[in-house]
Design a protein that fits this description.
By secondary structure, the protein is α+β, with helices and mostly antiparallel strands. The protein has a domain of 159 residues: Muramoyl-pentapeptide Carboxypeptidase, domain 2. It is 42% helix and 9% strand. It is built from nine helices and six strands; from the N terminus they run H-H-E-E-H-E-H-H-E-H-E-H-E-H-H. The strands form two sheets. A four-stranded antiparallel sheet has the order 3-4-6-5. It has a two-stranded antiparallel ribbon with strand order 1-2. A hairpin with a 5-residue loop joins strand 1 and strand 2.
């Protein structure tokens, strides 16, 4: 009897172990199925683009926004006048523009006249220059002002230019910085008004000569060429001694409007590009019996 019970007990334990083993296998199988389904769904979604709302947003760093400066919409006057001169080959000799952007024309010719003291200028400005210097004695303690620099050759201008650069280099400036500084005082050879004979450097016995010239030179056709307030336009530092002949009409307008030569020429170019109403042809009916004007006038 005990032997039968012992066999039954072993049989129940064996069935229990088989039942527990079968339950664990079932759980493992379910987990494997879940994993496979998850992997399958993930692979299927790789080729799809995420909606815009789900895309990661840039994080705020607190750094200032990058700003790009605007380019000026108005063309610089030096460029305007350069274009004007290239298009208008018959430019008035009195208004020829010579600066860092505008070289002396290759075919430019000049006839010189000698001044008291030995300096020379274009003979066409000799008379108005002498008249201005005579009148300027009023602001020079009664003494006749001296022209210390008039017409310059290419060689002279080159010497002055190289010498000014060397001075700045001797002060410790790099070659490029020395060149940049020198060009604020001495024009690049081939770009100097002195080389066309229309500019003079004037010295006086007293400093009062310069305020007098600034207020009266326009009456003789000369302009204070390089005022300090126009350096950004002319590219030249203030030179109270430098005067340029442009003719009485232009000099008067520049004086009254406070313009430098670059600004004046740019203004004239704009005016020339605008249609002029006064140039329109007007036809007036003549009354019966009216006398026709004579063509001899």
């Amino acid at each position: 009897m005990e032997g039968i019970q012992s066999r039954d007990s072993r049989s129940r334990r064996s069935q229990g172990r088989r039942r527990r083993f079968t339950w664990r296998d079932t759980l493992a199988a379910l987990l494997m199925v879940a994993v496979c389904v998850s992997v399958f769904l993930s692979i299927g979604s790789l080729g799809k683009k995420a909606p815009a709302s789900d895309l990661p947003k840039p994080s705020v760093t607190g750094l200032p926004a990058l700003t790009i400066p605007r380019m000026q919409s108005r063309m610089p006057v030096v460029s305007l006048t350069r274009n004007a001169q290239m298009e208008k080959k018959d430019t008035d000799w009195k208004l020829i523009l010579v600066n860092n952007q505008n070289a002396i024309p290759e075919d430019y010719e000049i006839t010189l006249a000698e001044l008291p003291g030995g300096e020379k200028v274009d003979q066409r400005i000799y008379a108005p220059l002498m008249a201005m210097l005579e009148a300027a004695k009023e602001g020079n303690g009664g003494q006749f002002p001296i022209v210390v620099s008039g017409y310059r050759t290419q060689e002279t201008q080159q010497f002055l230019y190289d010498d000014k650069i060397a001075q700045y280099q001797n002060q410790g400036y790099s070659p490029s910085n020395a060149k940049q500084l020198a060009e604020q005082w001495v024009a690049v050879p081939g770009h100097s008004e002195h080389q066309i004979g229309l500019a003079v450097d004037i010295n006086g016995a007293i400093y009062d000569i310069y305020p007098w010239l600034q207020e009266n030179s326009y009456q003789y056709g000369f302009i204070f060429r390089y005022p300090g307030s126009k350096t950004e336009i002319t590219g030249v530092a203030e030179e109270v001694w430098h005067y340029r002949y442009v003719g009485v009409e232009a000099a008067t307008e520049m004086y009254e409007k406070g313009l430098c030569l670059e600004e004046y020429l740019a203004e004239k170019q704009r005016e020339g590009n605008e249609p002029k109403k006064e140039n329109r042809l007007r036809v007036r009916r003549m009354s019966p019996g009216a006398q026709r004007p004579s063509l001899a006038a």
